[in-house]
Amino acid sequence: MDPNTKDQTEASNRRASRRQRVMLGGLIVSRDGTQTWDCAVRDQSQTGVKIRLAQGQVIPKHCHFLQLKDGFAYDAVVEWLRLPEAGLTISNPYSLRDSSDPKYKQMRWLWQERRMRTG
Question: What is the pTM (predicted TM-score) of this model?
């Protein structure tokens, strides 16, 4: 392997923030809030998540990601998709715990409903 290629590969694999392995529940929500997809979160950092989808599911490029355990909603963009896994860039975290913003009403409801289901 050419040394320059190796350096470029290593540089492209560096992330802005360190990933942590996790096993959490997540929810992908379409931008208009009309569709949802359950997912399992495998890795998470401040700027991204690696998720696993159910067999045959495909999600939109631009969506919202809900981290169910802590009750945060994020704007999300699919950066890569190798089904059943996908890598999302996440931004604009918003706590759903004390939300009164009408913009997040649907996502807060979805988060509360999923929490009740999982106990």
Answer: 0.81
